[in-house]
């Protein structure tokens, strides 16, 4: 008779190989997207976003600075898009000599009040060839 393999070991192996467990109708990349899916797929212990407090990140940036624009558009925005909602809380603080861009970003943040609403717009402003021209659009 074959030795019994503990369910926890099977679950760990399934997570590592990307296999679904019985009762789990979701692909592995969705297992940590909600508590309900994690429970159905027996992956709660592997989902840090369901148990840990969100990471707090404040970015002080100058609107027209090429390095700041590159970081915000290529690294921070894409990371924010890829992470499950609620894992990363970002506070953007525009400042510096770029008065038009910083003032526009600050005004947008104040009016929209929802990070999920204004961050894509700020990404659009900062990722193009000219933040001031993108502002008009």
From TrEMBL:
Intracellular or extracellular location(s): Secreted; Lysosome
InterPro entries per record: Interferon-induced_GILT, SAP_A
Top enzyme class: oxidoreductase
GO annotation, biological process: immune system process
E.C. numbers: 1.8.-.-
Major location (coarse): secreted
Signal peptide span: 1-20
Source organism, top-level taxon: Eukaryota
The keyword Phosphoprotein belongs to this UniProt entry's keyword annotation: no
Keywords carried by this UniProt record: Disulfide bond, Glycoprotein, Immunity, Lysosome, Oxidoreductase, Redox-active center, Secreted, Signal
GO molecular function, one term: oxidoreductase activity, acting on a sulfur group of donors, disulfide as acceptor
GO cellular component, one term: extracellular region
Domain Saposin A-type intervals: 17-57
Role according to the record: Lysosomal thiol reductase that can reduce protein disulfide bonds. Facilitates the complete unfolding of proteins destined for lysosomal degradation. Plays an important role in antigen processing. Lysosomal thiol reductase that can reduce protein disulfide bonds. May facilitate the complete unfolding of proteins destined for lysosomal degradation. Plays an important role in antigen processing. Facilitates the generation of MHC class II-restricted epitodes from disulfide bond-containing antigen by the endocytic reduction of disulfide bonds. Also facilitates MHC class I-restricted recognition of exogenous antigens containing disulfide bonds by CD8+ T-cells or crosspresentation.
Binding partners and assembly: Dimer; disulfide-linked.
Family in the record: Belongs to the GILT family.
Name of the molecule in the record: Gamma-interferon-inducible lysosomal thiol reductase
Organism: Odontophorus gujanensis
Record gene name: Ifi30
């Amino acid at each position: 008779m074959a030795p019994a393999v503990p369910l926890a070991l099977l679950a760990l192996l399934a997570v590592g190989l990307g296999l679904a467990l019985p009762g789990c109708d979701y692909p592995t990349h969705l297992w940590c997207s909600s508590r309900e899916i994690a429970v159905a797929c027996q992956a709660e212990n592997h989902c840090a976003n369901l148990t840990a407090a969100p990471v707090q990140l404040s970015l002080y940036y100058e609107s027209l600075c090429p390095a700041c624009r590159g970081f915000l558009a290529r690294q921070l925005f894409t990371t924010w898009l890829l992470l499950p909602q609620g894992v990363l809380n970002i506070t953007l603080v525009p400042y510096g000599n770029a008065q038009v861009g910083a003032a526009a970003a600050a005004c947008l943040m104040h009016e929209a009040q929802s990070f999920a609403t204004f961050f894509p717009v700020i990404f659009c402003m900062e990722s193009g060839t000219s933040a001031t021209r993108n502002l008009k659009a």
